[in-house]
């Protein structure tokens, strides 16, 4: 059995950030979790960060999300410098509601003033078309744009960068899949699918949408866990080059066919090809109660049945593109009761939680991990945050 002072369970964006921050102040730190699966039929847990592009914005839904976004972005230069890995492309971010003003746009001015952030407001579709000619929006649309450092991040490379810094700090990176956490008089004993056991007095559970599965926590978190489908539209390198200045888009459409679209300019994927990425919610989305349902979704889910619908939505927003192929990817997100992350010590002493990120964690994962690490190190949250901000709700 290997002993550590702190073990982070979950090797995603939040877990890797937390492990990095914990390694700055602690000696014997381990992060445990599987790497990206090469064979989905053999893997037992999955994640949505096996991807090349995520939206980065600053002005969030409220003060907490805005501060998390801002705190994360402030660290990007240092993370890239220390790791030698570039993951951030500050091409700007555009938020549009095709119906006009909404709650987010009404709050934006206040949040921007609280954090001294700049943005440009757009009162109609003509104003949007003037500045963003590649996009097409209805005349009733209203929106706002943020310039650099908003834009996009590469989640695979951000994860790699965090783990590289963790390695530099002599953190221990283990590839096991944890199935059981049991409280013991000297802390917690952790058992992996591979048959290994580990021990530590403090655990951070950052297992994403899999936090309630296996035997990781005695009382399950109150989370909705749902699927999400991504459309990848393959374009030529020439088309990709023409769209290198296209800002990331958050499009608050809700027309009973698609809801909450996000769209990212062409990005090169590991196979060498360039894809425009678009994701959204659909009325047919599936909510999961059991791990077997999630595994079936990732392995055999019929996401391709929605290609035509998603293609039509994409071409309505970007009418001048000429994709040469369409693919889908299957993802998963979770939603908390209050719409913010769950970060805190669970009702099991020494077992901490960082989960429930509502689909927003990629752009602020560094700060979420930093908040969790600060709580473990100092027994309190960082300044400006309250326990109510991240209150944990259980089933």
UniProtKB/TrEMBL annotation:
Keywords: FAD, Flavoprotein, Oxidoreductase
Cofactor: FAD
Transmembrane regions: none
Lineage: superkingdom: Bacteria
Keyword Flavoprotein applies: yes
Annotated FAD dependent oxidoreductase domain residues: 5-375
Claim: Transmembrane is one of the keywords in the record: no
One Pfam family, short name: DAO
Gene Ontology terms, MF aspect: flavin adenine dinucleotide binding; sarcosine oxidase activity
InterPro entries per UniProt: FAD-dep_OxRdtase, FAD/NAD-bd_sf, MTOX
UniProt protein name: Sarcosine oxidase
